[in-house]
Amino acid sequence: MPPRSLLRRAAPWLALAVVSTVVGLYFASQAYANPDIRMMLSFKRALWINLVYYWFWGAAVPLVVALARRYRFEAARWVRPLLVHIGASIVLSAAVIVATELVLKEVLHIRHSPLPVVLRGAFYANFHSLLPTYWLILAGFYAFDYYVKFRDREVRASQLETRLAEAQLRALRMQLQPHFLFNTLNSISSLMYSDLEAADSMMTRLGDFLRLTLESDGAQEVPLGRELEFVEAYLEIQRIRFEERLVVETSVDAEARRALVPSLVLQPLVENALRHGIDRTAGGGRIGLSAAREDGRLRLRIANDGPMASAEDAASARLHVGLANTRDRLAQLYGEAYLLRFEPLAAGGAVVTLELPWREAHEDADADRRRRTAGAPEAAHAAAAS
Asked: What is the pTM of this model?
């Protein structure tokens, strides 16, 4: 047997020996500190008596644990376990006294007193004080057993919660792609009757976009720079549709490009700006996309200069499939540590602001995975999403 395996098997017995010795030393010092007892026996004698008694109790612990597991106290069945443990405590206490006195008679060379006399004195002096030892061991086992089961339940609950979050995030992610595909294919279908070349070009751009999607490793979070590639591929498709009517202005700090964001988080926000802003104006308009680090958080803003947004627009945006999925994904990933806000602009159009906890792509991979799958509620508040 390997030494490590042997040590693992011996560890509980070593622990019992150490604890029993410490308890014996404690009670020996307590007895010797009593002036009445000190007059009758030396410290050596007090030490031997207490050590042997508690060594035997240490050896009896596995039996107490076995009885505790076999006869558990339950709400509907507690009478029989109680009777069993009462009987076991009496028998074990008596057995420890007899075994200890037999050993002490040889170790301390007690030859002048007959064994029955020694045992009678030991029972009178020690039985009532030893009896609670059984119940303390029993209570200690139940407390430890409850703690272990409680920790196991916590771990299982955490694992189930993580798996549920992963499943929900996968489902939400899969909902985004068909939604985008439906809208793009609908645009291609319309262009087939008016501009075949534009429809062909849009199909090519759609292929590029899908290639970027398929090249994704399935991570829930990606660097913002990589996410901007998805948005650019999406906007290339929309530029074909809007032609000169669409102008895109991008202002992204170099530092912000390293920040982690949920994958495919920008596309539904940009689509919202197109549908509820630029698409409503005959002359087209501008979309502004900016990203920067502010107060230790990543702030993203997607603005459009279309018609002035109203309260009805905001309500409609909240019901929008893509944005509803975005809000759900953010809640799964960040708990309450994000902000997603829709605001009409006085000069016309609207702006969507997204704030996320600042984390860069080079952070510890294990921490990233925990945050991606289980979410990380931090000190912040979430506003209603557009």
From this structure: 0.48
